[in-house]
Amino acid sequence: MAITIEFPKEYGYVVMVLVSYAFLNMWMSLQVGSARKKYRVPYPNLYASEERNKDANLFNCVQRGHQNSLEFMPLFFALLLVSGMQYPLIVSGLGTLYIIGRFFYFKGYSSGIPDKRIKAGLMSFLSLFGLMICTALFGVTLVIKETN
């Protein structure tokens, strides 16, 4: 049995937000690569050892900022793509705020002072929470349609 999915006409904005995050992720990867060279952290080491590298904290902050973004990426993508089916403009706005927050989260973290990530992290988490609400509302809408 074939299933037909109709996308709202504004769904392209949702896709553009997803692609924007992919570009941000690529940029963060390049920043980690540059930090790896600058602080002399060879592959395959994910993090620098403080016993062997005086700049371990600086590198580890860059790496951790990117790693944290990777950890949240599947959740962000799933919430964005699913809730965008019902609320494409709201979700595109929340997704854009999430990306801006992630950028400043990474910049703050990679400064070597992890506490500089907190304000931007709050913006990202609030945006993510908004996406969760939109996704839940979309789910409720689908359940109500099925029962009527």
From TrEMBL:
Q: Domain of life here? A: Eukaryota
Taxonomic classification: Eukaryota, Viridiplantae, Streptophyta, Embryophyta, Tracheophyta
Naming one, the record's GO cellular component terms include: endoplasmic reticulum
Q: Which reaction does it catalyse?
A: 15-deoxy-Delta(12,14)-prostaglandin J2 + glutathione = 15-deoxy-Delta(12,14)-prostaglandin J2-S-(R)-glutathione; leukotriene C4 = leukotriene A4 + glutathione
Q: Which UniProt keywords apply?
A: Lipid metabolism, Lipoprotein, Lyase, Membrane, Mitochondrion, Mitochondrion outer membrane, Oxidoreductase, Palmitate, Transferase, Transmembrane, Transmembrane helix
- Pathways per UniProt: Lipid metabolism; leukotriene C4 biosynthesis; Lipid metabolism; arachidonate metabolism
What subcellular locations does the record give? Mitochondrion outer membrane
One GO molecular function term of this record is: leukotriene-C4 synthase activity
BP terms from Gene Ontology: leukotriene metabolic process; lipid metabolic process
The EC number(s) given in the record are 4.4.1.20
Topology of the protein relative to the lipid bilayer: Multi-pass membrane protein
Q: Which SUPFAM superfamilies match?
A: MAPEG domain-like (SSF161084)
Which species is the source of this protein? Rhynchospora pubera
Which chain regions cross the lipid bilayer? 12-30, 75-100, 120-144
Query: What is the protein name stated in its UniProt record?
Result: Glutathione S-transferase 3, mitochondrial
